[in-house]
Structure formats: C-alpha cells, structure tokens
Design brief:
Layout lengths: L21 H5 L10 H14 L3 E8 L5 E7 L2 H5 L1 H11 L13 E6 L7 H14 L13 E5 L4 H14 L39 H11 L5 E8 L5 E2 L4 E4 L5 H20 L4 E2 L5 E2 L7 H4 L4 E8 L7 E3 L5 E3 H21 L1 H13 L8 E4 L5 H14 L8 E7 L5 E6 L4 E4 L5 H8 L18 H5 L3 E4 L24 E4 L4 H12 L4 E4 L3 E3 L2 E3 L4 E4 L9 H11 L5 E3 L15 E4 L4 E5 L5 H15 L4 E4 L13 E4 L9 H12 L3 E5 L20 H19 L6 H5 L7 E7 L12 E6 L11 E6 L5 E3 L4 H7 L2 E9 L2 E6 L13 H9 L4
Parallel strand pairs: 3-4, 3-5, 5-10, 6-8, 7-9, 25-26, 25-27, 27-28, 28-34
Antiparallel strand pairs: 1-2, 2-4, 11-12, 13-16, 13-17, 14-15, 14-17, 18-22, 18-23, 19-22, 19-24, 20-21, 29-30, 29-31, 29-32, 31-33, 33-34
Helix pairs in contact: 2-5, 5-10, 8-10
Length: about 850
C-alpha cells in the first residue's frame, strides 16, 4: 500500500541525480544505526551546498560547542526572495511596518528537543531529502510554502544518548526490554548539557539553546510549528488536536485547524493500519512548551509524540509482542511531517489571513494594561526589561490613576502610576503572549493538566503589580546604560547594597579575586543613604595586601556594573559601625553539590547551571556513587538538591550530620528533605506534635475511605485533590534572618509538590500561614488544607553547623528569578 513515506534508496537513481539520499551519504539506511550529530550536520550542509532548494543557517552553539542549525527549504525562486518573505510575514504580525508583497506561509519543523527521543532527527533527514530531491511529487509544494527544519534542538543531549547506545547496544540489537541498551544510565539523554528540559524553556529562555532559537524564531513567526517527540514504548502515535485544558485565548481557528491537521494525518495512518490517538494527554496551557509558545505567537503549535523514548533503541518488544523498530518510528514522524506541509500548502491563503487576524484583533483580551510598580530595585526591573526584549514584548512608562487587580492582595483597587513604573499595554503585536505571561490567574476548564498551572511573571520577579481592564497611553523608555565610576583618592571602605543577583555576582567576583568582605546584619545609614541587611562592606583595613586598593575595587565593580558607595569613616550615622559585632566577616566558602544516581537530574542541573553560568562561583560536584570516600572537611557548604537518594543509608547520613555538627552547612532542597524528615537528624516533620500526627493519620484514613468509593473513571480527579501542580502561594518572610536578606516581608513561592512540612524547632524563615494564601494556579482540596501553617524556608542549628531547609526549590527551571538570591544567602550568609 502506498504511503507518504518513500523507501528512498529503491527509487530510480536518475531521479536523484542532484543530491544523495541519506543512505548514499551516510553509508547506511536510516533506522539501521543512530546518526551522531556531526553526521546530521554534514548531511544538511551537503544538501545546502548541492541543492538550489535548500539553504542552511547556523543560529547558535550549544554549551558543548555543537552547532545549532536551521534549514530553509522552498523553490529556488522563494529562496532568492527569502528575506522579503520573512519581512512580509512580520508585517502581517504588525512587527514590521508596511504591507506584505508576498503570500508564502512558513511551516517550522523542530526535531529532537529531548535528546533521547532520537527518531525525530533521523526523520528530519528523510523529510528534507524528500523535499530537496528532484522528481518528487512534493516539488510543486515548494512554490507555495517555505519549510524551516531544525534537525536537532538539543545536540548535546542527543549525542549523550546516541553515544550511550553505541557503547551499550548489542550488535545486532537486543529487543529484550531488560537489556542494558534499553535502560539509560544517569542522567539520560533527555536534557541538555546542564540537564534542563528544553521543552519547558521556550518562554523563560534560561539556556543558551533556547536563547539562540527563540531569537531566530521570533524573527520569522511561522504559521505552523511542530515539535517532534517520543513517549512510552507501549503508547502508539499522538498528534493534534490537543487535550484540554486549552488556554482560553487560543482562537477558534487555531482549535479547528488542529483538528483538520489531525484528520489529514489520520488518513495516512488509517491506510497503513497504524495506531494513534488524539485529545488525551497533551494540553495547551503552560506557556513555555514547543507547542504553546508558538501558539501564543500566532502559530498552529503542535506536539507529535511517537512511541519509543530513550528505551526503544534500534528495536524493542512491546507489551503485545510486536517489535517497535527505529525504522518504524522514523516512518511515522516522516509521515506526519510531510502531511503537515501538505495541509499548509492546501490552506496557504487561509493560514495567512488568520495569522494576520490573530495579531490584529486584541479585543478578546481581558486586561488592557499591566503596571509593575517600581520599588527602587533597578536591577530587578532591568532584568525584566531584558527578558521582555527577548520576547519582543513592548513596554514603557505612563502616568495617571487606574483601577485593577492587585497581585499582592488578590483584590481590585485603585492605584497611581509613577514615572518609574513599568507599563505593558496589550495594544501591541505581542499582546496575547504578554497577556498570558502576565495574567494573575489562569482560567482552568480542566484541572487535570500536564504541567504547572501558574507562572505569573510579577510573582516570579517579586514585583508588586496590577492588571487593569482600562487602556492607557504608553511612552517608550530608553534603556539606562551603565557609566563606569572613577576611583576616589582614598576611602575607609566601600559599601554595596544587597538587593539582587547582580549584587550576588559582584560578591562572587570579589571573593574569587581574593577580596575580603564583611556584611551587615542590621540596617545602616551614612550621609542620608540607607543600606539594608546583607549590604557588603569592603574595608581597606581588611585588604591591606591589595595594592592600589581604591582602583582595584572600583575596577571589579565596574566589571559587574555595580555602583559602590564610598565612606570615609567607620562611624555610621545610624545602625552598627563598621567595627561592630553586627558587621560580620564573610568567610569565603568552599561549596560542594551532590549529583549522580539518586538525585533529580533536573534539580541538580538547575543548581549546576546556577553556580557556573549565573553566579559564576566555583562548585565541586560530588558523585553519590563515591560519596563515602569524600573528605567533607574540605568543604564548608554541601547542597543536597531534590532527589530520592536511594543509596544514602544511615552511614551516609551520619557522615553528613557529623560534618554539620563540626561546623558544616547542609542545604537540603525539596525531595532531599525526606532524608531528614521525622528522623534523629532534624526537627523536620509533617506534624507539629503527636496529637497533630494522630489527627493527620485519622484524616488520611478518612480520605482513603472516600477514595475507595470513587468510580474508576473519576479516580484521577480524586487523586489530584492532594496535588498542587505548580501553584503560587504567598509566604510570610522573616527578613531579619540572613536567609532572607534582601527580601521584603512577603515572598511568592511556586509550589510544585504537596508535601507538608510543619514549623521547625529552629528559625522558620518563610511560612505559609493559611490556605487562603494560594494566589494563583490549581491546588486540590486536600493540598490546600495541608499547606496551611507549613514551612517553606527554615534554618536549624546543629552543633556548630546549620541545616538550611528549602521546601520549594527556588531554582526550579531557573525562571523564578526572585528566589535565586535566597540560595545565595543560604550559601554565603547563613551561619557566618
């Protein structure tokens, strides 16, 4: 039976005279072996050099220095006119001025965002060859469409997986699911170099791959975007339409066209008796996916999921006894890719018209203006502006009074706008994206979702904000540039305020340069200027060994674009003097991070990335597999990121606790707290006392009894009563504690779990006080009850050391910007 997939090497060679097939170029049939990334690069480069239908662009590099590539495939005439087609597309979106002169839609196909979902990169080679070769029945399509093909979004992760399979795979392959080739070693190939899930990073752009990709993506804004994935080996193929919940701002056309695409795919799958499903698991809500982010930027954004994932290898036996091969997986992905292009060609005019309407009609948006109130912390606002620039979201300043939703109280109130406030109007091309990223509460038509349900940007940045249904005129603002300071002739000390990650980077930079630093535990005042808790003091007396002290410190500060205050005396006008015991000497810490088996690769990776790329401070990674041989006395701080630590028994935990008692500092995050909870190591517990424990156990039995009577089809919804999939809570902070230096009395936390932790016997630095402190997102009935009067951040003294308890990971996916300073405080200030 004829399908869209061609057995390319069997067709007459005269047809393919222009370019070689993948088999001819690589020396093997697609599906027989895994191609390493450099081979894929070579093949795409070869096609661009030997076909008038293909052009290739490198848009970036990975952390491991592999190239990131995008190929544009179209007719020779369209490729000559490619820049005009791109600009015309941006004109339709209102991003460029003028009227389009061309009518060519763009279909963007993205492959292998998860490195061990490896069939899609192989399918990209089959797809581009079918489009580029001569004599194909797809050739007439190229006059009507431009196809952008990104063969591998995540080269580092892909090569990690492919190298694993080449190392452990049998020759010939072994289809037994228990064979080692079907069971990846930690951390697996899914994530990038820093073990980030790049499919959750489209909006936040914390990783270099995402930053590079979104820059080129936003310079095109295609009408269709497909993200090719793989799922469990016993699932068949998933394609559009997506599952509920759909975000309420997704247009009717976007919904309907997903259905049309799905029916087109189904036609080809039905012809071959291939199994598939739609509308079941993969929703369109969380804005940082490879389907939702393009959707919120006007595209028909879709995820295609092929059975396989990191377990399938070259072939694996499924539950029904069939063997799923890499060739099968390539064939399926090839088919949906070509089917997507086909339906775009057949609906080109309609796609372009609806695309223009998406950007031209903002009447469906509830909020017209978002106002972020300036609190004097310019660093946070500059960081936010930079992120908005990367999104292409316009912002500015304004004045006057409005009425709107108060993010802090959850109520509507009147407020005034000052000249330093940041104002975002939805009267702009990127209005839908801005609305979704800034909306205070996401409407959920279905509480069973695939990811977190809250992400409000003002909460993530820790900025007081309002969302108003009123329109207001916004004036453009100029970016403030940093002017380097000149060194004074003589100083007693320099002082740097402690408000942001920019200040933290300065601290790290000074320590790496051997500069000795103090910090104040109490607010200080000098000549009318206030310095809050945590402010850094660089005294000349401490740094006698530094020649040209004044010049050297200013040079470092300029490097980090920090403005230091100069004091000429140790006598403060208010607060402690420089020589006070309340001004602490900061010992430069040696920091270690546990990783490898038993740790969450994502949580570990986020911390690794944070230390190396954001804080730029040295960290020693200690493997759990050889931890028993490590001399902990060489380190001052040990970070146990989230994980299950299955190999950590009493011997390992006793070793850590003896080190803490001797003066070490343990930072335990999220899942790692389970090694401490209800143990002899800590006062950490789910219960305040024995009476509370008995009450909780009684309540737990009652919940179990209720669950037993729930019908089978409703059991998933019963389960989520105890679940909080990414909900935002208000936290009361004790900002006199070093763990909370630089923070206000209110912090917003993102809860990605529902594990309850009662108050400590030690310092309860951050707490959720009542269930009404849920501000945004979904939390089940039981989860809301459990979160009341619970710990979020705390410090416990143990001997001469400390345990820092962090229930909600502030480094989760690295986008919760306001939580990062807390991790720095834990490493540098607590216990000093």
């Amino acid at each position: 039976m004829k399908t869209l997939f061609s057995i390319l090497s069997y067709l007459p060679l005269v047809i393919f005279a222009q370019v070689q097939s993948p088999k001819e170029f690589l020396g093997h049939e697609l599906g027989e072996k895994f191609s390493r990334h450099h081979q894929v690069v070579d093949y795409f480069t070869y096609l661009s050099e030997n076909s008038e239908k293909v052009t290739l662009q490198q848009y970036g590099k990975t952390y491991e220095d592999r190239p990131l590539l995008i190929s544009f495939v179209s007719s020779a005439e369209n490729l000559k006119n490619l820049e005009q087609i791109r600009l015309d597309n941006l004109k339709r979106a209102g991003i460029e001025e003028g009227t389009p002169n061309t009518n060519i839609p763009i279909v963007w196909l993205s492959y292998n965002v998860h490195g061990n979902e490896s069939s899609s990169t192989e399918a990209s080679m089959a797809t581009i060859y079918e489009l580029a070769r001569g004599g194909s029945d797809k050739e007439p399509w190229l006059d009507k469409v431009v196809i952008a093909i990104d063969p591998c979004i995540n080269p580092d992760g892909r090569d990690r997986y492919v190298n694993f399979f080449w190392q452990y795979g049998g020759q010939p392959y072994n289809p037994d699911p228990n064979a080692i080739e079907h069971n990846e070693v930690w951390p697996g190939g899914r994530a990038n170099h820093y073990l980030f899930d790049l499919n959750r990073d489209w909006a936040w752009q914390t990783q270099i791959e995402s930053q590079s990709r979104i820059k080129i993506y936003n310079s095109w804004l295609p009408q269709i975007h497909v993200d090719f994935h793989e799922q469990g080996i016993n699932s068949p193929y998933y394609f559009a339409p997506a599952a509920q919940p759909y975000h309420e701002l997704i247009t009717g056309f976007q919904r309907d066209f997903q259905e049309e695409i799905g029916r087109n795919h189904a036609k080809y799958f039905d012809e071959n008796n291939w199994f598939y499903f739609t509308k079941q698991f993969f929703d369109l809500l969380y804005p940082s996916y490879g389907d939702t982010y393009p959707t919120y930027n006007g595209a028909i954004g879709m995820t295609y999921e092929q059975a396989g994932h990191g377990r399938a290898g070259l072939g694996i036996i499924k539950q029904e006894g069939d063997t799923l091969t890499l060739s099968d997986r390539i064939q399926h992905h090839y088919t949906t890719g070509i089917s997507t292009i086909e339906i775009a060609v057949n609906n080109a005019e309609r796609l372009l018209d609806e695309f223009g309407q998406f950007f031209g009609d903002n009447s469906r948006l509830k909020y017209k203006t978002f106002v972020l109130k300036y609190d004097g912390n310019a660093d946070k606002f500059n960081s936010l502006k930079s992120w908005l620039d990367n999104q292409g979201i316009e912002y500015g300043s304004s004045s006057g009074r409005l009425k709107g939703y108060d993010y802090k109280t959850g109520n509507s109130s009147d407020f005034s706008i000052s000249e330093n406030d940041l104002v975002i109007s939805t009267n702009q091309p990127k209005a839908t994206l801005a609305h979704i990223l800034f909306e205070p509460k996401t409407k959920l038509v279905d509480s069973v979702t695939y990811d977190i349900t809250a992400w409000g940007v003002p909460y993530a940045y820790g900025i007081q904000a309002y969302a108003s249904t009123q329109n207001i005129t916004v004036n453009k603002v100029e970016q403030v540039t940093f002017n380097p300071a000149d060194a004074p002739d003589k100083v007693y000390a320099y002082i740097s305020k402690w408000n942001s990650m920019d200040d933290a980077r300065l601290l790290a930079g000074l320590l790496k340069e051997g500069v000795k630093i103090r910090f104040t535990e109490k607010p200080m005042n000098y000549k009318g200027e206030s310095f809050g808790r945590g402010s850094l003091i660089i005294a000349k007396r401490d740094n006698k060994a530094i020649s040209n002290f004044e010049d050297r410190i200013i040079k470092i500060a300029n490097q980090y674009q920090r403005r230091l205050s100069i004091i000429q005396t140790g006598f403060m006008d208010g607060g402690p003097d420089i020589g006070s015991s309340e001004v602490r000497y900061l010992k430069k810490p040696k920091i270690a991070l546990l990783g490898h088996e038993g740790t969450s690769s994502l949580a570990f990776g986020a911390t690794w990335h944070f230390m190396e790329q954001e804080l730029e401070y040295p960290v020693s990674i200690l493997g759990t597999d050889y931890f028993s041989r490590v001399d902990l006395a060489k380190y001052d701080v040990l970070i146990m990121q989230s994980g299950w630590y299955g190999s950590f028994g009493e011997r390992e935990m006793k070793k850590i606790m003896e080190w803490v008692s001797a003066g070490g500092k343990l930072i335990a995050v999220e899942g790692a707290l389970n090694k401490l909870k209800d143990s002899d190591y800590s006062s950490l517990s789910a219960y305040v006392d024995d009476e509370a424990k008995k009450e909780a156990e009684k309540e737990g039995k009652e919940r179990e009894e209720t669950a037993r009577l729930v019908p089978y089809e409703e059991q998933e919804r019963e389960f989520i009563k105890g679940f909080a999939p990414g909900a935002i809570y208000k936290v009361k902070m004790d900002n006199t504690n070093p763990l909370a230096f630089g923070y206000d009395e209110t912090y917003y936390t993102l809860k990605t779990g529902s594990s309850r932790v009662a108050y400590l016997d030690g310092n309860n630095v951050g707490i959720v006080m009542k269930k009404e402190d849920l501000l945004s997102g979904f939390a089940g009935q039981y989860a809301k009850e459990d979160m009341a009067e619970s710990l979020v951040f705390g410090v416990e003294n143990k001997g001469r050391g400390q345990i820092v308890h962090i229930v909600d990971n502030p480094l989760f996916r690295s986008f919760w910007q306001n939580g990062k300073l807390l991790m720095v405080n834990a490493m540098f200030f607590v216990g000093q």
